[in-house]
Amino acid sequence: MRPLKFRLFLLPLLLLGLGFIAAAVPPAGGYAFAQDQQPAQPSQQTDQQQPAQLANGLLEAAVADLAKAKRAFAAIQDGAKQSEMDDETLVALSGQVDDLNRSVTAISARLKPRTAEIDTRLTQLGAAPKEGQPPEAPIVTQERDRLNAERSQISAVILDADNLTAETNRLSMQLMEMRRKLFAETLFKRTDISATTFGDAGAALVDEGIKFSDAVTSWIGFVLKAKLASFLAAVCLSIGAALLFLSGGYRLFRRYYVQDETIENPPYISRLSVAFWSTLIRTLSLAAFLVTSFFFLSNFNVLRPDIAPILAAIFGFIGLVYFVGRLSNAVFAPFRPHWRLVKLSNKGAHSLTWCLQAMAVVNGLDYVFDRISESMGSPVVVTVAKSFLAALLIGLILIAASFGSPMLAKNGDPDAPGRRWPHGMAIILRVLGILVIFTSFIGYVGLARFMATQLIVTSAVIATMYLGFQLGKAVSKQGVFAETIIGRFLENRLTLGEVALDQAGLAAGLATYAVALLTGIPLILLSWGFHIQDLELFAYKLFTEIRIGNISISLLGICVGILLFAGGYLVTRWFQRWLDSNVMARGQVDLGVRNSVKTGIGYLGIAVAAIISISAAGIDLSSLALVASALSVGIGFGLQNIVSNFVSGLILLVERPFKVGDWIVSGTSEGIVKRISVRATEIETFRKQSIIVPNSELINASVGNWTHRNRLARSEIPVSVSYDADPRRVMDILLELVRGIPKVLRNPEPHVEFLRFGPSSLDFEMRFYLSDLSDGMEIRNNLRIEILKRFKEEGISIPYPHQELHIIRDGRKNGQAEVAANELTDSADGPEADNHIAERLALPAEENAPEAKGAGRRRGRTVAQ
């Protein structure tokens, strides 16, 4: 019955170290084989003058390793034939086959680079001359023949290794099939259940008790006489580890899993959090203590081979009972109704808690007694009788629980008598109990025992995972994480905002999902027949090798690559800041040069970090050449604008026609350059609008740069005076005013141009140069104010446009001319008035005559007044 148990009750004990062992330590056989291979590894540094000797050395090492692998394969085959009924041996052989498969694959991988070198050399030598062609040099022919012979030998070894790899894969599938058959045979093995069976079991049980008592007595004597110091040291270390785990767990996680009695009506998320973390953390703490205790006792050679499995079973029994008890107390909370997760009455919560713990105790004791029988060499009938009684008791407990009334009363009072189960739930419990008992009575004790175990272990694990999922879902809701203890701590300590706390809640929810899955799935797999070494191999393959066709992906390598890229990115950013603030800033390097250097270093560092991370992740960069060539067509058509902008950005950073801080004009965009990237340039206008201009437009179009070489600029102020003013005096006044401005350059000297004779004014333009064009607006404003003030003092007038109209009266159109005169006299000089007059003049004379007369009379009265 040993394969049937599947070490179910060691699950809580072994969970803590499972992930670290699987990820960090390959199977033992792999190390041994790798150590055997190391002496045969050739040096990678070759001497070009002796390629044949090196290649032969590499080939000889590969042949020797392949021969050793074949011998190991034959030994595994023989072991599989001799251990068809031993599940543990088959598991160990499966691990050896997996190690052997990886080792043979490594042999082929070592030879393939040499094959590529030979192919390259043969391509350089070219084909042998055909008939009628000039003969080649003898040394070339000898070199080609030698390379072809070597390539043939390497190809034969690679083919042999590939065949051995296929054989190991087939053997691995055969071992898996053998384990499945053994599991099925053990599970569905039928035993006659009769009075004789129990009579024989009773007699054998008496002998087993005597043997067990003698074994324990002799072991105690052995410890007291020869291993007392080791035993006391192991006990002290175990107690110290227990205190460390318990006190550390209490100090670190007390606030997350202790039910606060002062809270009368805790929120549902708090109840979920306490239930999940109290079950998980306390169970893992006890499991760590038990594993540590067993480890110390074993390594100090205190345990004998006949006592070690019994003590391991006792530790597993303690862990299982504690786990089920913690889960039932967390969910049902029999003594704290306000922390209860399900709607049960107080009496119902107590009864269900006792039922679950009773089933766990029965199941655990059966497992302990089974290991005692196995260690004492008792007949199988004893194990059958014990398993029959355990299955019978568990079935009766299920049936008894189905007749209870645990549901909360309608009035919501937990102290009131409860209601019965929902009809469907009661039927399910009775069917399960009857099925377990019926299966035991017909002789399938192993199947009944397996069903009872799954009802306890798998149900408890699934319930814990469900709590974890519900907790993660509750924490992930918007605004919920900020109300938790961790959320308030982060808010106070790190001063996080609402959005940051919401993102942290989402991450906390995902982390809770991951913890629930990584805890529950291994336990469920172990309870359903998987061995611990199976999980180790699965975890090792998951983290180191996932094959998709001919592509091998390593999650561990990907994680390392991501960490290397993140480290390279941070180092690049740090170096950029250091170079900018400590080197270029002290050297008073121009701002644009500093930006170009920083940008170039950033792209270079990120590119190097990406290459290193991709290589560390196990991705062959040479394999990307085919993908790059295939994508080149798409880049040429669909991504040509992006590529054009990228190349244009590199040109701008290197050529620097403008830099950050320059005042440029491009098309309709004018402003200050704020940032130059490889795709686009950011320009901030004087109205503080950011314009993102693609780099290709700046390369292909004309760009005006006011500050390309310096900030020197010419500024102009147009001035118009009346015809009565003296031009010489006006020019002298303007020069006097502009020369009085300190920021105006004396070289080039400011001057005034007499531009033209305007329609109603004399037009001048004052021109002067500034060292910084950004001062132009202020200086021009001040100069205009001074010019206006000085002209008023000098009596120089600044004319405004005016127009004289001469009205001609002639006969019939007298009224229309009068109207035109009045309109022009009373209206403004705008285009709307001209259009209005034109429309009035275009009217017939008969329609305009009354209006013209009325207008004339009004004008006459105005003149008289």
Automatic annotation (TrEMBL):
Residues 823-865 are annotated as: Disordered. Residues 716-798 form the Mechanosensitive ion channel MscS C-terminal domain. The chain crosses the membrane at residues 228-253, 274-295, 307-327, 388-409, 421-444, 450-469, 510-531, 551-571, 601-619, 625-654. SUPFAM superfamilies: Mechanosensitive channel protein MscS (YggB), C-terminal domain (SSF82689), Mechanosensitive channel protein MscS (YggB), transmembrane region (SSF82861), Sm-like ribonucleoproteins (SSF50182). InterPro entries: LSM_dom_sf (IPR010920), MS_channel_C (IPR049278), MscS-like_channel (IPR052702), MscS_beta-dom_sf (IPR023408), MscS_channel_2nd (IPR006685), MscS_channel_C_sf (IPR011066), MscS_channel_TM-2 (IPR011014). It is found in: Cell membrane. Pfam families: MS_channel_2nd, MS_channel_3rd. One of its GO terms (cellular component) is plasma membrane. It is a multi-pass membrane protein. The keyword Cell membrane applies. Belongs to the MscS (TC 1.A.23) family. This is Mechanosensitive ion channel. The lineage of its organism: Bacteria, Pseudomonadati, Pseudomonadota, Alphaproteobacteria, Hyphomicrobiales.
